[in-house]
Write a structure and sequence with these properties.
- There is one protein chain.
- Strand 2 and strand 3 form a beta hairpin.
- It contains eleven helices and five strands.
- About 5% of the residues are buried.
- Helix 1 runs antiparallel to helix 11, helix 4 runs antiparallel to helix 9 and helix 5 packs antiparallel against helix 8.
- By secondary structure, it is mostly helical.
- Among the domains are: about 50 residues, no CATH class; about 120 residues, no CATH class.
């Protein structure tokens, strides 16, 4: 009975010890995700100006200064005497050149390199991209490609064009001949001076009638003169002039009507679209349409964009790199980082044996071993 009481008491003591161990100051505490997110945002805000300055300097090929906060770094160090012949040693940063022939530590033999964490105080550093910034590199590459492109064009440009035309003839000889014939006909039409006798005659007659006004136009005068001559010949008369017969038709109401008739005829003629000017305009428009249709077809010139990536243009523009921006997932990243660190610490704490729990477990095992013996 006494041993059973001792075992129960040991179990209660073990539970109390485990609770106190879990609540001890040394155990990892749950992370403050809100503080972690705020710290991440502040760190991003502090780093953004330096990131922008570095990006601009690297793009333009200039210099910029930025602040490096206090931090710890792992550095390779070696132990050397504090002074020649001294038994006291000190650690100095490892520089390979100092241990080679002619270096200040060359006589000490092969160095024993170790790693130490060193606290680096905050300081300002300068980044110099002069001569090899993005603009410098892209400009140099663009000039080199331009020189190469010009050289290749001068050497092979004509050959490429001739080869393209030859391949077009071989691939579609009938179509090539038809296009060539069409082009020749278009050129002949452009160079031809058209003859429009009917339109020219009508235009002259309307112009004469309009210019005559109330008087008889030349054609009407010729008709009147011939009629008067025929009438006098039939009557064996003479001495009467055609002007006497024309006067009643050119004056008064008859003359005004003649004038209005000329104006009306001229208006109808202009609105008909059959004047020589209208015919010439339609001819020009048709020639332009023929040329446009031919150029938009599969001519060797239309196939030029298929040669040597010519669709990019004669002078391609290379855009610069994108500037750094504020990250959009800082809060999530900070929370995940804090939770990950806490989980790692908890796993280490759980897997580390507790001295109190180990002792109580041993006592319980001893009591369980003694109980059967006492009962016997």
């Amino acid at each position: 009975m006494g041993l059973t009481v001792i075992a129960i008491a040991g179990t209660v003591a073990a539970a109390a010890s485990a609770y106190s161990a879990a609540s001890a100051p040394g155990m990892p505490q749950a992370p403050n995700t809100a503080q972690a997110a705020w710290d991440a945002q502040l760190a991003q805000l502090e780093a953004l100006p330096a990131q922008r300055a570095l990006a601009a300097a690297s793009a333009q090929g200039g210099k910029t200064s930025f602040w490096v906060p206090t931090h710890q770094e792992k550095r390779q160090v070696v132990s050397v005497p504090t002074y020649p012949g001294s038994k006291l040693h000190k650690y100095v940063p490892y520089v390979a050149a100092e241990w080679e022939a002619g270096g200040q530590y060359a006589k000490l033999g092969k160095p024993k390199i170790s790693t130490q964490k060193v606290k680096v105080p905050g300081h300002e550093e300068t980044a110099d991209f002069t001569g090899y910034g993005a603009a410098d590199v892209q400009g140099t590459v663009a000039r080199q490609y331009a020189d190469v492109g010009q050289t290749l064009s001068e050497k092979y440009g004509t050959q490429f064009a001739e080869e393209a035309a030859r391949e077009a003839r071989l691939a579609d000889p009938e179509g090539y001949t038809a296009r060539q014939t069409m082009y020749d006909q278009i050129q002949q039409e452009l160079e031809r001076t058209p003859e429009r006798p009917v339109a020219d005659l009508l235009d002259k007659q309307v112009s004469d009638q309009l210019n005559a006004g109330a008087r008889l136009d030349p054609m009407a005068q010729d008709v009147l003169r011939a009629a008067v001559a025929d009438a006098q010949s039939a009557r064996n008369q003479s001495g009467t002039t055609d002007a006497e017969f024309a006067a009643p038709m050119e004056t008064g109401l008859a003359g005004e009507r003649r004038k209005q008739a000329g104006i009306s005829t001229a208006n109808r003629w202009l609105a008909s679209g059959a004047t020589p000017e209208d015919a010439e305009y339609r001819r020009q428009q048709q020639n332009m349409a023929n040329l446009s249709a031919f150029i938009s077809g599969q001519s060797p010139v239309a196939q030029f964009p298929q040669l040597s990536a010519a669709q990019q243009g004669t002078t391609p523009v290379v855009n610069g790199p994108a500037q750094p921006q504020m990250a959009g997932a800082n809060v999530q990243a900070a929370n995940q980082f804090a939770l990950g660190n806490w989980n790692t610490a908890m796993q280490q704490a759980i897997n580390t044996p507790n001295s109190w729990m180990t002792g109580i477990s041993a006592a319980l095992k001893a009591s369980s071993a003694i109980a059967p013996v006492a009962g016997a």
